[in-house]
Amino acid sequence: MSDLTTPLTVSTINVNGIRAAVKQRSAENLGLLHWLSETGADIVCLQETRADDEQVAKALAPAVAEGWQVATAEPHIKGRSGVAVLSRHPIDDARLLESDEFRSHGRYLEVDTAGVTVASVYVQTGEADTPFQQEKERFMATLAERMEVLRTAGREAVVCGDWNIAHTERDIKNWKGNLKKSGFLPNERQWVTELLETGWVDVVRRLHPDVEGGPYSWWSWRGRAFDNDAGWRIDYHLVTPGLAARAVSGGTEKPAAYALRWTDHAPVTVTFG
């Protein structure tokens, strides 16, 4: 880990459509591009770009002009999924999942940059007792296999993104009403537990061990979920132990008001010293 750039700040954000996130409230000088120009992050993982590589490049052109390096994984179905990684440092290599089923889905992209491996992941939403949930579980199994390779590779790594799973009751406001719904199913939660048991660290939870309400990172657009902080914590940084030990701060960048939102998620940011 001697070549790790420190301090190093890593953010993750589901943009809920990158073209919309760029345009959203641009007249008020808000939105994704403004956030990128203001953030102190060195590396940013994006999920749900819902755009092909050319469209992402066009949307992020102003950020690239400011010095960001970009790697992308476009979705195989138009308007769905899509992930990207932005770095202020050179991106030395980029890789997709070695999976016949999921390689082209735009749900996983890992890069080597700043002396660390960083992956952006977007796990399916799923729907209990349907083929959508079966696909989600196959992806989870494939992802776990790749994470085991990363964990034992001897290089520090961060796998972050929208996991679409609230791990514990502390990670979801209305946990009682979601016990039988995808995102809070027992086998999904156990899958996260097993990742942590192998050595991966949920670094934001480690930094906030006593927080009962999240800190949440997603709120429905509907009703008063945001105002009432009735959210889900589904955006995680899972980090190798050596790097996790160097985490000095982290949490959710929740907007100050509903009107300032440019996506239904909030950035989750961690700094390693």
Automatic annotation (TrEMBL):
<feature type="binding site">
    <location>
        <position position="14"/>
    </location>
    <ligand>
        <name>Mg(2+)</name>
    </ligand>
</feature>
<dbReference type="InterPro" id="IPR005135">
    <property type="entry name" value="Endo/exonuclease/phosphatase"/>
</dbReference>
<feature type="active site" description="Proton acceptor">
    <location>
        <position position="265"/>
    </location>
</feature>
<dbReference type="GO" id="GO:0006281">
    <property type="term" value="P:DNA repair"/>
</dbReference>
<feature type="active site">
    <location>
        <position position="122"/>
    </location>
</feature>
<keyword id="KW-0460">Magnesium</keyword>
<feature type="binding site">
    <location>
        <position position="162"/>
    </location>
    <ligand>
        <name>Mg(2+)</name>
    </ligand>
</feature>
<dbReference type="GO" id="GO:0008311">
    <property type="term" value="F:double-stranded DNA 3'-5' DNA exonuclease activity"/>
</dbReference>
<feature type="active site" description="Proton donor/acceptor">
    <location>
        <position position="162"/>
    </location>
</feature>
<feature type="site" description="Important for catalytic activity">
    <location>
        <position position="235"/>
    </location>
</feature>
<feature type="binding site">
    <location>
        <position position="265"/>
    </location>
    <ligand>
        <name>Mg(2+)</name>
    </ligand>
</feature>
<dbReference type="GO" id="GO:0046872">
    <property type="term" value="F:metal ion binding"/>
</dbReference>
<dbReference type="InterPro" id="IPR004808">
    <property type="entry name" value="AP_endonuc_1"/>
</dbReference>
<dbReference type="InterPro" id="IPR036691">
    <property type="entry name" value="Endo/exonu/phosph_ase_sf"/>
</dbReference>
<feature type="site" description="Interaction with DNA substrate">
    <location>
        <position position="265"/>
    </location>
</feature>
<protein>
    <submittedName>
        <fullName>Exodeoxyribonuclease III</fullName>
    </submittedName>
</protein>
<feature type="site" description="Transition state stabilizer">
    <location>
        <position position="164"/>
    </location>
</feature>
<keyword id="KW-0378">Hydrolase</keyword>
<comment type="similarity">
    <text>Belongs to the DNA repair enzymes AP/ExoA family.</text>
</comment>
<feature type="binding site">
    <location>
        <position position="164"/>
    </location>
    <ligand>
        <name>Mg(2+)</name>
    </ligand>
</feature>
<keyword id="KW-0479">Metal-binding</keyword>
<dbReference type="Pfam" id="PF03372">
    <property type="entry name" value="Exo_endo_phos"/>
</dbReference>
<feature type="domain" description="Endonuclease/exonuclease/phosphatase">
    <location>
        <begin position="12"/>
        <end position="265"/>
    </location>
</feature>
<feature type="binding site">
    <location>
        <position position="48"/>
    </location>
    <ligand>
        <name>Mg(2+)</name>
    </ligand>
</feature>
<dbReference type="InterPro" id="IPR037493">
    <property type="entry name" value="ExoIII-like"/>
</dbReference>
<feature type="binding site">
    <location>
        <position position="264"/>
    </location>
    <ligand>
        <name>Mg(2+)</name>
    </ligand>
</feature>
<keyword id="KW-0464">Manganese</keyword>
